[in-house]
Amino acid sequence: MLAFGFLLGLALARIATVGALPTNTSGGLGSRSKIAPKVFIIDLFNEEGSSWFGIPEFNVLERNVTVPGFSPLFPEAHCTQDGAICQLVTGEAEINAASTITTLVHSSLFDLTRTYFLIAGIAGINPKVGTIGSVTFARYAVQVGLQYEFDAREKPVEFPTGYVPQGAFAPDQFPPIL
């Protein structure tokens, strides 16, 4: 969490050096004006998302906006009262992230033309390659949402697990690259 707080601080500092970016021009929850956040925080699951709740400097739970098309598990974007900072949870796996962000970008509720996006996700890295807070590009993404699962009583004996990536024939294989 410390690394993500640091990244958010950098993003907010960048906004301050750029000058006055647009803030929400809506007069309140009932207004029809678009919300124009300076920063939009994107999380992948509940624990990541809830780590932003209760921060005194910005309360993203002051304004909860239901966005049609978001996942039924995470149907709202959370924003500060003025809309300067917003946060959402996409759900794990690329398909959930893709559909949620596509919905956000095409939503008539937000003006994202001058918004910084902070993807605040957790991951692991070999300590010989990087340190906490490192930024890196992965060669592979682990897709836990698109896999087959054998019942433990029915999986082949040689399989160490019942999980097989979609398109592969064994748990330790990568699907073919098309």
Please characterize this protein's 3D structure:
The two termini are 37 Å apart. This protein is α/β, with parallel strands linked by helices. It has two domains: 2-26 and 34-119; 146-178, no CATH class. A five-stranded mixed sheet has the order 2-3-4-1-5. The chain has a two-stranded antiparallel sheet with strand order 6-7. It has helices at 2-18, 46-50, 94-106; strands spanning 39-43, 63-66, 76-79, 85-89, 116-119, 147-149, 163-165. The protein is built from three helices and seven strands. It is 20% helix and 16% strand. A hairpin with a 5-residue loop joins strand 3 (76-79) and strand 4. The model is unreliable at 1-31 (pLDDT under 50). The longest helix has 17 residues, at 2-18.
